[in-house]
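Look at one record.

>
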Amino acid sequence: MKLNALNNNTALRNTPKMPVLFLGHGSPMNAIEENEFVEGFRKTEKSIPRPDAILCVSAHWETRGTAATLKYT
């Protein structure tokens, strides 16, 4: 889906504002190790409401153009 198509998507509903988080992964090993960073990620997850959607922006993706994928829960 192209980003400008999000404006016309009637399936998106208004929801309360959620906090904005920047979660830098640091070392890729944080995905598989138990350490203070992983513990911090878990504490953060328990301290905020469960979101309906998550926007993930990556500087490590190479593609032509900009697109969005929607997944509803």
Summary: The radius of gyration is 15 Å.
